Amino acid sequence: MESKEIEERNDEDWVICYDDEKAKKCIQQYIDSKKINKEQSREIITYLQNLEYNDIETYISADNFYLIEAFCQLIENSTDTQYVLELIEFINAVSKIEGTMDKMVQMESFKWLIPNLFMFEEEKQYNILNTLTLIFTNVRIIPESEMKKFDDSFLEGFIDIGLNFLNYYDTKWLHYFYYTVLGYQKHIISTTYSPLVYKLYSIKKAPELGPELISLLNREKFDYPLEDQCLSLINDLFSYSVEFQVPVFFFTLDIKVLIDIILRAIHNLEELDPLRWQYLEVLFTILQHPEYTELQHKIDDIKQVLTDLTLPRSEEKDPSSSMIAKRIISYLNTSF
């Protein structure tokens, strides 16, 4: 089909005629043709952006997400970084359509996402980071063969991106980085520590990233459902320090701020919220660290918060929190 059927040309640019029915017909014919080139992909995106959400969902998921498959192939074969960026931004925009990110994994998208991450200039890397995070948070199981693409050299370059973002005044850049970190952690299955934890402890400057990880935890709400992974990573960083008898990843001031955040969260979270149990477990890990033995930051406040959780009313409503609190109190009574 010739595009002039639904387009008009003026002296400078193509002007799209937003006739929904003609646009839908055009999109469907492209899907049926199983052959989409660069310019046609741009047309399709323009038409889709002006349709109702239900129609967008219909065409994105049509024919086993053919459009996503075609866009992935176009990205993989393109050397035009601006065009690649356009397609990635569009895919990110439709990522909430169920099955979209699963299709990205089926297309082995990491093999082009990872190289593009390092090829883009810093100001545009967040688009790739966002795509990776969307895959990590929307796909339940990522094949081991795909996760292996995040190898040692990737992790080293990836952490370097985070360190570069430290120079930015706006902390949103580091938050993009950390959401990807936490999404990656979510899919790592290991009997010890993830490769990321080992890598963070092997890079001398990496602890400079610690304050912003804690700052992320201090936010009122996470942009992605990864608060549990943030707590898990912090817990592993403290545990690794004890197990291998190396200085803890976080600076002393960071640990004080972290304890303040944890105490507030334990107090504010609803009873029976699993996050409250996790905050308590992280607190216990910190309290057992030699660094805290010297600090003893807010020890009285900690004891009070824990004691409140063991009161009969609290124990009845949230027995799990009460049980963890009793365990921590027992440790404190024998150690401090």
Automatic annotation (TrEMBL):
- Which residue spans adopt a coiled-coil conformation according to this UniProt entry? none
**What superkingdom heads the lineage?**
Eukaryota
Q: Where are the transmembrane segments?
A: none
Biological process terms in GO annotation: endocytosis
A single GO molecular function, which one?
Answer: Arp2/3 complex binding
- Pfam families per UniProt: SPIN90_LRD
Q: Which residues form the SPIN90/Ldb17 leucine-rich domain?
A: 186-302
What is this protein called in UniProt? Answer: SPIN90/Ldb17 leucine-rich domain-containing protein
Q: Give the originating organism.
A: Tieghemostelium lacteum (Slime mold)
